Predict the 3D structure of the following.
Amino acid sequence: MEKIKILAGNWKMNTNLQEGIELASAINRHMNGIDNTNVKVILAVPFTHLTEMVRLIDNKQILISAQNCASEVSGAFTGEVSVKMLKSVGVNHCIIGHSERRHIFGETNETLKAKVNLCLDNNITPIFCCGETLDVREADNHKALIKEQLEASLFHLSEENIMQSIIAYEPVWAIGTGKTASPRQAQEMHAWIRQLLKEKYSNINVNKIPVLYGGSVKPQNAQELFACPDINGGLVGGASLDKDSFMNIFNAF
Ligand code: PGA
């Protein structure tokens, strides 16, 4: 089986709508001009941009994602955006449990489990993030923590639903810091995630579940990371905000 390849850009809270349209249009134009069709591109843009992005992107390889969703179906939750709202504007992917959501906004494994369920109930692919902080790694607890995060929010899923999910391993100490996990460190964790998937879901081909690496992915380090056997691509923050650097990362596959 050929390795699944995905490049996801996480714009976080960056770009106003005009800037977002310019960036997405430039990526769309670039993608329309090349014939590499085996890498899927996902753009996780701010909520305010979603409707416009779904409308303007005409390249079939590019998919639009939200960066978060509510853990409730609907109701009196001022400021929240539900999965049904996302679905109604044509969004099919949603990042769940990014470390900034976990650490800045206090989202728990339990909340994330509810979000994952809502996404899958509504045919939205969750891009489920896991990753350890520096102190956890230094205490050599990183493998145990990833296991705990996956078991708490993802491993209740049916075989069918886990096959529709994407996992992103993002060591917190590498996000936005310029410090990337070395290809050896990243591959070790991706192999661990794959092993956990295999143990839990022994009847399915877990190579069909994409596991992305995130944390200071740049054009200079992408090739080495993407060449690792258990890395299916990247979830890119800072370097996804510039069309050329994002497309140079795309070219690293
Ligand atoms: P970064 O962010 O590429 O800027 O480190 C990655 C992420 O947070 O998804």
In short: Strands lie at 5-10, 39-44, 62-66, 93-96, 125-130, 166-169, 211-214, 233-236. The two ends are 16 Å apart (CA to CA). DSSP finds eleven helices and eight strands in the chain. The first strand starts at residue 5 and ends at 10.
